[in-house]
Records
---
Amino acid sequence: MPLRLDSRDPGFAAAFADLVDARREADEDVSRDVTAIIAKVRGKGDAALADYTQRFDGHDLDAGGWKVDRAECEAALATLDPKLREALELAAERIRAYHAAQRPEDRDSIDAAGVRMGARWTAVDAAGLYVPGGRAAYPSSVLMNAIPAKVAGVGRLTMVTPTPKGATNPLVLAAAAIAGVDEVWRVGGAQAIAALAYGTDRIAPVDVIVGPGNAWVAEAKRQLYGVVGIDMVAGPSEIVVVADAANDPAWIAADLLSQAEHDPTSQSILITDDAGFADKVAAEVERQIPNLSTAATAATSWADNGAIVLVGSLDEAAALCDRLAPEHLELAVADPERLFDKVRHAGSVFLGRHTPEAVGDYVAGPNHVLPTGRRARFASGLSVLDFMKRTSFIALDDAAVRAIGPAAVALAEAEGLPAHAASVALRLG
Amino acid sequence: MPLRLDSRDPGFAAAFADLVDARREADEDVSRDVTAIIAKVRGKGDAALADYTQRFDGHDLDAGGWKVDRAECEAALATLDPKLREALELAAERIRAYHAAQRPEDRDSIDAAGVRMGARWTAVDAAGLYVPGGRAAYPSSVLMNAIPAKVAGVGRLTMVTPTPKGATNPLVLAAAAIAGVDEVWRVGGAQAIAALAYGTDRIAPVDVIVGPGNAWVAEAKRQLYGVVGIDMVAGPSEIVVVADAANDPAWIAADLLSQAEHDPTSQSILITDDAGFADKVAAEVERQIPNLSTAATAATSWADNGAIVLVGSLDEAAALCDRLAPEHLELAVADPERLFDKVRHAGSVFLGRHTPEAVGDYVAGPNHVLPTGRRARFASGLSVLDFMKRTSFIALDDAAVRAIGPAAVALAEAEGLPAHAASVALRLG
């Protein structure tokens, strides 16, 4: 049974605080293992990759192949069910269009003091995309991570993915072909992240690494943050659905389950102002679960991490949502805009009764890689900016340095940095 | 003596690669100490802060005060040398103007399929600013870190700074007053970072932590990245100056020394196409060093990490600069624009003979907090964006979900996520 809270109960504040603070992230301490793997790949390169890949994936890189050829990706695309291919291509096109509008503009202007200043955005030279093997190998995730990189103008986009016993995932390869991934290596785990960061004889290093992964992959990215750029520190996924009684309980139940079915650590929270509606949704969830091929996962997630929060008025919802700062926030209410105007912290918001979160996972266009675990307080979803960087620039002529230089000299002297002061003062003659 | 390379020498490629790969970052392993400090502050809060502050800073927080009052900051400003106050206020005004133009625009549009999509930027609720004690306590750094936060719209800006034996730095306090810092706590080190990230009874937690610090501070920020947002992983500072023979050697020497005087690990590199000019600059560096109050630091940095790279033509410089991806790049050449157009990786670029890097440190306007250690390949200088986050949103009506929903259903089914499929399919009726 999921947690059930009522904002009018005396113990609500403390109980809600517990819900906000509950850590769903597994405390697997893999940091020492990961440190060792990174050191070995950094030192021994491809030989270390071959060892680890044999050991963890049961794949012999030298005998079974290091790379998945471009032709193999194209073949996976060519043999795809036409309906699926069409869906993937629609998704790719919509993701491309949304992210193209994210490309930042350069600045270049001269101010009243005659100082020319500006900023120029450029793409990173190379990016790495991690794609998990097994259950979490999603073609939608390939599109969401690869297309922003390509839209940014990244020159070389390298995908790494474990191929357990050599097995590849045709859907993932087809998505790689559609997204324009430049190379695909059959390596995974922390060893693949280390190879991307430092490079090996075969695999050229990249500047930014993105993509989901297990605890080893996440820890490797965390440890290598600073050597390369990374997308974010990711935790279990979550959704908050704010819904009034005018909704179809079956729709809302399905929305809650669409999060719960991802992983036992996922979290689905319903906030509603109607106790009867809450009961109906809870009953619908129980009714729908057995029909799902993902029933076991969804049931565990809902029972362990799910919650129904009853509020006196939906006006209370915005403040509660900000406390949770959820990855996904669905506002299934009559006037979603009004509620959205009060929300400050959420990764992505789904407005109105006809916007299930799952359309955002696949085809709407905005990125589905979003901050989890209350990180929407300070972090944003993946974007073109994650694959670009800004170079500021300054240009002074003789008049401009005379206008603002004396202040720089004064400050440099006050800070005890005489060469700073001299470098400006010499230009003042 | 600094390293001297010539691109026409046979061993150049290898020698330049060594220069690029040289790590100047101290390998102090403070990670275990920092982990312990963070755990203690997280568990014991203010009591742990009081212990550490007594031990590391010789300051008794309970007897000597936890905070520097706003009135004390205002008093420091009021009693400041008027010329310095004017310089700080000019700097603040210019930094504010430059960063105000960085505020991102929201998006909101409806596409041909009837799908409304957009993104909304909001500031983080609270930000923490670390200001080192001792030599590296620079008022310019307070302005550069605090003003972008305020321009972003951060509600609460908390500064932490160690006050060894209770001593405060009036220049730093005056800068805090000018920048509008909301509160100043007399704590430093990893313990201050932990307090900002997790909060204590006295110090409320923040969402983003910025500002320079020693190895403990940097490691604490790295470990807490994900719990909070951080500005960047920072290393020793560096400058590359590309200069032709038409420059005054004394100006260029001062520019190189303005980097070298920061720290023995700082790096200054001259790239020029004229061996005679290189000799003159080298001689000027030696001539200027003894006159500096920072002579010892500057001499060590120049001897240990400095380099002069002679090239056959300045056209080679852009590619070399990209390999180094320097924090600061000065282009003191006849046509700096032409060279700048070829450069891809640099934190900030200073164009022309009248733009010493030091004007950027203080008064030009762009931020002086920049990526170091080749991180300009993937990272940008501090900006208003570091204190904001983007919430994407999607709104579909009945027609729009019918237009793009079927593709989402197909993809969800292919990915084995039936509740995702159902949440969309139910809306298709």
Note: The longest helix of chain A spans residues 82-100.
---
Amino acid sequence: MASTRNDSAVTVRDVAQLAGVSPGTVSKALNGQGQLREETRQRVQEAAEKLRFRPNQVARSLAEGRTYTVGMLTSDSFGRFTLPLMEGIEDSLGAGKVSTLLCDGRGDPLRERHYLAELLNRRVDGIVVTGRRPDERRSVGQLPIPVVYVLGRSDDPEDLTVTNDDEQGARLAVEHLVAHGRTRLAYVSGPAHHLSTQLRRQGFEAAAAAAGMTVSDLLTGHWSEAWGRTAAGLLARRTSGLVDGVVCGSDQIARGLTDGLREAGVRVPQDVSVVGFDNWDVMVQAARPPLTTVDPKLVRLGRLSASRLLAAIDGAELGRGVVAQPCELVIRESSVPT
Amino acid sequence: MASTRNDSAVTVRDVAQLAGVSPGTVSKALNGQGQLREETRQRVQEAAEKLRFRPNQVARSLAEGRTYTVGMLTSDSFGRFTLPLMEGIEDSLGAGKVSTLLCDGRGDPLRERHYLAELLNRRVDGIVVTGRRPDERRSVGQLPIPVVYVLGRSDDPEDLTVTNDDEQGARLAVEHLVAHGRTRLAYVSGPAHHLSTQLRRQGFEAAAAAAGMTVSDLLTGHWSEAWGRTAAGLLARRTSGLVDGVVCGSDQIARGLTDGLREAGVRVPQDVSVVGFDNWDVMVQAARPPLTTVDPKLVRLGRLSASRLLAAIDGAELGRGVVAQPCELVIRESSVPT
């Protein structure tokens, strides 16, 4: 690998010389602008190909006032939830020939401010701000370019947030349990103050009420397997009759719960159906049995947020408020009694 | 959020007018070039601050022939191993005020070639190529800018690869087991054709031989918990005496093995000590007991590769071949018999 800079890069002048035209004609021919004879345009293109001429994107940016670059500001380090979002964002941007400048704010306001200034200096065309939980985050404020928040919501109602519909996701889980004859339902989730815990609980309660089901327990704790195991112990020791369907706030909780129930002699799904949330491959596959779960479709979320941003860069109205996308239920062995 | 482009951005001309100097003087004052009276320099700076003037990074790039941008090409989608590498790469680049352009090659050669052309068009100063496993990958070839491979090795010995020392990592694990009186050792890892499986086995065998220990089993299978549980069954059914120490090729395998042993009535760590590989928080914490493991220090790896790249961009010799960085052992409950 040569570690020296290439100072002999091919320039417009070289192409012009080979094609026997002026540098201005080369620009016109390659940018498809101005009036040129087809024969001239072709001669320039052949010369450019022969010399492997790469038009200087930097110079083009300066001329067009647009850099075909979007900043991605992750507010919370590169969490597990960030990966699929990034994949989706890159899908959309790549298709639009737009590159992504990566900035990891790590939840540090100073660091974030530094990055924002840097992105503006670099004249990005827009910014995607990703969070790893649906909880609110501070708006980055009014900027001269469009900004889309994805997953984590902006606290400014004038901003646009694209996120998943946690309430609807929990409703799907309850409707699935009810469809399989489950009647005594419990909800086991993460910290009570997290927005995702609250929204999913609302969906859980609404769907249970609509189906006329008994809600036996609403337990909140941590986003961990250990908490799932603890909750399993609490549910298994109930004297007033065992629940027969549990909706969990995450796959980690669902996995711990499943392990805990099995070890307490309760069979999943024969005695109790369990549904997780996230569709996190590592958890849902390793659980015994594999987990039915609610998929927040994060790749799709990333893709959608980036295309909204691209449209806004091209002049469309960005929109405002929270756009909540539907989740999907993925059915595996943990929920269907046999 | 305003979704319109800001066409009234402050220019050098505005700053010049407010400070009562020529645009050329503004440039000199803000870039610290040329000879200017201190009083003039200060007046320009005050005007720039008052108008919130941001020097145009794009124009600066064109003038300097350097974009302060590095491309990061992930060869294998955004895997779990990519996250800590990215964090480290961003650490180094951020400190050097260099931004990261993100390209997800997804293991597709066509996609990768497209991205490489794009990165060169955008005149990046260098490229980091990340892989998620130490296995070899095709070199991106000779480019006019420096390229560093991290984790995944380039197949061209002229390229520079920064990766972790898998052999040394496995040696650490064996030495730890031996120090705690374990004498009958087994190695349980992923697919036999993976370089990481091979290198770790070499380290395992070398350290076991050096300590005069019996190697009872060398098992290769999959990078999964299910394989770990299967391997536990194989080891527990041994008639020729149980192993008392197992080095696993990953934390997932170690976790499955630990579950499988416990369910077969074998106590970890009282009867058998288990050591994992990766220090993947989700696995090591949820395992019962929590896992002792070999940490490949991926953040440090990312940081090191990026600083080597920055040095090369600044003119230092890039170097070549494979630079293998030491792993560290993290001790938890799964390995120390009480």
Note: Residues 1-7 of chain B have pLDDT under 50 and may be disordered.
